[in-house]
Amino acid sequence: MKSLQRLISNFYDLSRFEAGEYKFEQKHINLSNVISDILALLYVDFIYKEIEPKIDIEENIPTTIVDVQ
User: Fold this and answer.
1) pLDDT at 33
2) Which helix (H) or strand (E) holds 46?
3) CA-to-CA distance for 37 and 55, rounded, in angstroms?
4) 69 with 25: CB under 8 angstroms?
5) Of all residues in the chain, what percent carry a pLDDT higher than 70?
6) What values do phi and psi take at 22, rounded to 5?
7) Between the CA of residue 26 and those of 20, 29, 59, 60, 67, what are the distances in Å?
8) What is the DSSP letter of 19?
9) What is the mean pLDDT of residues 24-44?
10) How far apart, in whole angstroms, are the C-alpha atoms of residue 58 and residue 14?
11) Is the pTM of this model over 0.85?
12) Rounded Cα–Cα distance for residues 32 and 46 (Å)
């Protein structure tokens, strides 16, 4: 059931994006932290599907400028 809710939420977000309801704002983010946060969110799915992600993040990744509101 949660997978279906997540899928519906993703479609809703996509439709909002296509309708121009999202606004972009430029700001500095740490891309390495974002990737780590995403992996943490997907950790349970990785275990359930017996997937072992292999991620190699360079130490000196430049700051990325992007944000969606």
Assistant:
1) 82
2) helix 31-48
3) 13
4) yes
5) 84
6) -90, 140
7) 17, 9, 23, 21, 6
8) T
9) 81
10) 30
11) no
12) 19
Tokens 């059931």 belong to residue: 1
**Residues 6 or more apart in contact with residue 43 via CB below 8 angstroms:** none
Residue burial 11-36, b: 16+ Cβ < 10 Å; e: rest = eeeeeeeeeeeeeeeeeeeeeeeeee
- Strand blocks (E) in the chain: 28-29, 64-65
Q: Which residue has the tokens 């990744």?
A: 61
SS3 64: strand
> For residue 55, with 0-12 CB atoms within 10 Å meaning exposed, 13-18 middle and 19 or more buried, which class applies?
exposed
Place of tokens 């000196």: 60
Which residue type does 7 have?
L
